[in-house]
Amino acid sequence: MPPTPPPQAPPVSDADAVRRDARQKVTGTARYAAEHTPPGCLHAVPVPATVARGRIAAVHADEILRRPGVHAVLSHENAPRLGKAEDPTLALLQDERVPHRGWYVAVVVADSLENARAAADELRIEYVTEDHDPGPPAGHPRLYTPEEANGGHPAVRERGDFDAAFASSAVTVDATFTLSALHNHPMEPHASTAWWEDDELTVYDSSQGSTTVRGVLAQLFQVPEHRVTVDSSYVGGGFGSKGTPRPQVVLAAMAARHLGRPVKLVLPRRELAAVVGHRAPTVQRVRLGADADGVIGALAHEVTTQTSTVKEFVEQAAVPARTMYTSPHSRTSHRVVALDVPTPSWMRAPGEASGMYALESAMDELAVAAGVDPVELRLRNEPATEPDSGRPFSSRNLAECLREGARLFGWADRDPRPGVRRIGDRLTGTGVAASTYPYLLSPSTASAHAAPDGSHLVRINATDIGTGARTVLAQVAAEALGVPSASVRVELGSSTLPAAPLAGGSSGTSSWGWAVHKACAALADMLRAHSGPLPPEGLTAHADTAEEAGQDSPYARHAFGAQFAEVEVDTVTGEVRVSRLLGVFAAGRVLSPRTARSQFIGGMTMGLGMALTEGSTLDSGFGDFAERDLASYHVPACADVPAIETHWLNEEDSHLNPMGSKGIGEIGIVGTAAAIANAVYHAVGVRLRELPLTPDRLLPHLRA
Q: What is the β-pairing status of strands 296-308 and 329-339?
């Protein structure tokens, strides 16, 4: 029998509450990892390798140790030995190998940041270089098909006979889309402050999940988990790059153990591209075969990407094509090659953001080829069940998102002819794309406490990476307890609290919220059963959702959305400006409209950057990325972003969690780049299939 749907909660109390951490953030009382300075704290600066591949022949630490203020130079020659690292990117300073440029080969520790930086810059390291292979991946002789793509998805899925169905289709599209590597660049740098005391480790770390960091540090330094405390109370963004421990926390803890003093280490922004992960570059071939009315009979999405020789990470870009549209004959596959380059990892909506750019651009091409309106084409290809699994959707309101978005955007007045709307030197176009993101859920624990004074305390090791977790969890607790949210205080962000999963995969509110709801519902039962005043110590309830999260669902559970864009293209400069950007989403029950709107806007802003400004170049001579700072890697500034408009449907879905919520942190980015790219095609009449759409790529077509 299918699992019993979780009980649905009543409407959230105080649903549009102001963020609970707003005052702390604007007044500077919120303390981030680098802002903790224990007595006697030293400063560490890592030293990246300057060769593309090879091994270390000599580290001339003696020259640096003579400098005033320098306390230590750690390298593979003297660094503490680590236990087995399940993530090989954390096996730092353990041997002489250099797998790629930027790999950390030493750490200099000094009494001030200035002294540490100067000494690190002067540290002389000799290398024995080896031939390196930076790719590119397309056509590489060592390409292989992995067993799985990121997230445990099968690398290859086939249904029906794609080749025969495609060959017999009345209308076909065969297009290849290229996306360069993208970089997370959170506002707060990756930072850690660490110290040891009686073989107990305490760390303030910029991380998306301190429970995970604690477990990894305990394994690496071979101490029991209860002797490791990790605090990530305030985190200034992560976008996936802080999803698991990164080098700074290992190096800081290593230096602190070596010296017996607190050590602070902040990774320089210019080094992030090489050591904290990035969205992998992809080459994606999409083939669509449809009948004369645009109904798809054959769909193939084949992805070529790269990883490093250190660790296999395969961007699951073809996976969304298994969910989106009717496709009785389908082939979705991933191939990858290990190169001498930095290791890719998660970046906001991994797989979906890059894969849906290609799929939704190809859908626009199919609409043109079939002579069908792009919105109508998507509506004609709505599947009755999830194409890949055959499971019914728990809810799927993509059609409503498309229709409502079209109404709000004024899509019906659109002239479908490309390249005809012109005022002076500017061409104007509009585009649409759909978006999707899976509903993810992980086990979590939480506790809820009622005090005699009428206050309530929720404790859970959730991590607020800027998304408003404190606010939303207080609202969830208040409605489960039936009390005003002002009476609820939330403690989060420390491994001393009940264990919880990391903030990632748009799963935080669903996973943490279920545990909080369960604990508070149990506490409410205890309060109802209690007579008379509460005891001085109050009452406490605990919850663990391992059983609920471990159940297999008979439903395909996803959030959906539709993005609409209007662009202006300057035919003289090649510059693209987005004049209108609108998104409509179906993401279950939205618990906090204020924070939800911010999340949707943030995701769509990142999608705008993906489409127009963000891109990086792999320097084949060195095997790393040329764009290493915010001067060369252009994230959107305020001047680039119009008044973005976001809306959502009041979606009811009883097959999720007690709150009825899906994730919203990532779906905003997913369709935005394709909507903008499709609008650029509509404006100029030329289809460009490589992002970002920078002036140098557009100008040759505008002047032709």
A: parallel
